[in-house]
Every structure is written in C-alpha cells, then in structure tokens.
From TrEMBL:
Belongs to the GSKIP family. One of its GO terms (biological process) is regulation of canonical Wnt signaling pathway. Residues 43-142 form the GSKIP domain. It holds the Pfam family GSKIP_dom. It comes from Triplophysa tibetana. GO terms for molecular function: kinase regulator activity; protein kinase A binding. This is GSK3-beta interaction protein. One of its GO terms (cellular component) is cytoplasm. InterPro entries: GSKIP, GSKIP_dom, GSKIP_dom_sf.
C-alpha cells in the first residue's frame, strides 16, 4: 500500500514525498488515497470529499442508493442556493449526473472536474463566498498568532 502526502515538503519546497499514516490526517482529499494496484478506492475518496467541503454547502453525503465501489462513488449535495445535485466520482474526477438526490439523468452530459472545489465553484456562488470567508478567517487567525 502506498500513500502520498504533499503537505510534507523537502528542502526543494513542494516536492511530493511519501508520508506516515498519522500524517494522512493533514492531507486534503486530492492528496490522500489508498492504492489498490492503480485504482483509488472511490468510497474512501467520496468520504474525504464530503468532509473537505461540508462547511460550505447546505447538505452533502455519500449516496448509498447506487452501489459505490472501488472505481465509482456517488455523492448527494445541496448548495447554499437550495439546488440539489447527484455527483459521480471516478478516476476521471467529479461530474454532475443528476439534479435530484439519488437520481441519474441519463440525458445529462457534463464535464468532469478534477476537484470538488472546482465543481462547486462552478455551481454555487454561496460555496464560493463560504470558502472565501473560511480562508479569510484562517488567515486572520494566523496573523493574530504572529505567523
């Protein structure tokens, strides 16, 4: 099993290195994965996606309606504007596959996004605002702590 974490920087600043399991708690969902051959376990990725952005949406949870597996998982999300989306998470990224919880719209043809941040940024001005506010608060705390 191999794990990667880019939060640990070498003297060459930003070089990706392997990390210890306890260091995984510091990694964001894009950096954290369990390698099964060359396939990420999408169930674990989906849980990490939800945990990363739950603060900036009204509701978000991994769906159990369709079978999630090693290669695909589904996520229900309701934006701050009250719009509901059914997301598909695969190796290709995240994309909207429906406009209601637990329902795939076969007629939809949406683009994949590499990150949940990119996807939500394109769907929800409320997400953008919440994310920006959280970032400002974090920067203010760092400034107050003299860092």
């Amino acid at each position: 099993m191999s794990r990667k974490c880019s939060d640990e920087l070498t003297p060459e600043e930003g070089m990706e290195v392997d990390c210890k399991p306890e260091d995984l708690l510091k990694c964001s969902h894009e950096e954290r994965y369990v390698e099964l051959g060359d396939v990420k376990d999408m169930r674990l990725e989906a849980e990490a996606v939800v945990n990363d952005v739950l603060f900036a949406v009204t509701e978000m949870h991994v769906s159990h309606s369709l079978t999630s597996g090693v290669d695909v998982a589904h996520i229900n999300v309701e934006t701050r504007e009250g719009n509901r989306y059914y997301l598909e998470l695969t190796e290709a990224g995240l994309r909207v596959v429906g406009h209601a919880f637990d329902q795939v719209d076969e007629g939809l043809s949406t683009q994949y996004h590499e990150t949940v941040y990119s996807l939500l940024d394109s769907l929800s001005p409320g997400y953008r605002e919440a994310f920006g506010n959280a970032l400002l608060q974090r920067l203010e705390r760092l400034n107050q702590n003299g860092q």
